[in-house]
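In response to reviewer comment 3 from the previous cycle, which asked for concrete evidence that the modeling workflow produces usable outputs, we include below a single protein chain processed end to end. The sequence was submitted unchanged, and the resulting structure tokens are shown without manual editing.
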Amino acid sequence: MPQDFRCDCPFTSALDILGDKWMLVIVKQMLVEGKETFKDFTESDEAIATNILSTKLKLLEEVGIIIKTKRPGNKKTNLYLLTDMGLALTPILAELATWSDSYLRGMHPGIADGEAMEAMRDDKAAFASALEQSYRAKLASIVYEQQ
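The workflow returned the following structure tokens.
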């Protein structure tokens, strides 16, 4: 199903795909938290409803941000994995996290503040690069298992 875009603006076009409140959360769950199965997503703190999760995963797959494949050694379980297009969102997620840390912590003091946040504050680009490299290593091991 082709994606409908509101206009020719690149910013608005990106938001037509990613502007929903769940899309970047799902990408973050995959990249940062290692979520890769439907069950993984349903057990997350964000508590996305299964019908919404199913719809969002299908859309992310249709636009090429994720792929759906089978778990090596278990052909019943679907794996959802980020593509290069999905991994390209890593710096954006790091930017959003540091923006939130800087500007929302006063309104929401419970925002996570551990080693990862400290690493982002110190060097956002290096943090994003390390996160992406770690995910790519995970992908390589999954592809190797499938062969």
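The domain at 10-146 is CATH 1.10.10.10 (Arc Repressor Mutant, subunit A). We consider this sufficient to address the reviewer's concern, and the full set will be provided in the supplementary archive.
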